[in-house]
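tool=predict chain=A
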Amino acid sequence: HIPSGIVVSSQNERSQHQNRGMAMKVLKARLFDREVEKRNQDKKKVEDSKMDIAWGSQIRSYVMAPYRLCKDHRTDFEVGDVAAVLDGKLQPFIESYLLNKRT
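tool=predict ok
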């Protein structure tokens, strides 16, 4: 198989056609195994790049009582208007993150 560089031969049967058929089955199996391994490695890369889902690893925290505060833990940016943030006003957090990422 030229693209993968896999070479397969079979001399178990008496007929050249049967040997060729057997070699094609082995080649398909090896190509399938190679593709499965490649996909598993891709999945592992994605899983390894994910952050740990544990207490304290969150991006943002919201405090409603006794005072009002929304804090971005990546940039230490804080806003006192929690209701606006929960309504979708995230622009200050985005700007803070981009400025922090740039430096």
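The mean pLDDT is 90. The radius of gyration is 28 Å.
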